[in-house]
Amino acid sequence: MAGPVLVRRLLLCVVVVVVAVVVVGCDTCFAGNTPKSPDHDHHHHHQQQRQQQRQQHDRQQDQKLPWITASGEDALLRDEQGRVRVFHGVNHVQKAFPWYPPILLNTTYIKEMASLGVNVVRLGFMWSGAEPSEGNFNMTYYQTIDTIVAQLANHNIYTLLDVHQDGFSSKFCLYDGIPLWVANRSVARRPFPWPMQGGCSSRPWAANELTEACGQAYDDLYHNVRGMRDAFIKFWSFSADYFKNNSNIIGYELINEPFAGDVYAKPELFLPGVAGRENLALLYDAVAPAIRQRDQRHLIFYEPVTWGMVFNGSVVGSGFQHVPGGAAHANKSVFSFHYYCWFFDIPGNASTWRRAACDDALGPQVFNAVQRDVGYLGGASFLTEFAATTCDPSSGASEECTAVLDLCDEHLVSWIHWPTDTDYPGGVYDWAAYAALGLSRPYAAAVAGLVQSVSFNNATRTFHMCMQFTALTPSAKTVVRYDKTHMYASGVYIRPSGGLSIATVSDHDVVLISQQTQGSGCVTLSPPPDNAPDTAVAAATTGTTGTRTGGKGAA
Question: What UniProt keywords apply to this chain's record, in alphabetical order (predicted)?
Answer without folding.
Answer: Glycosidase, Hydrolase, Signal
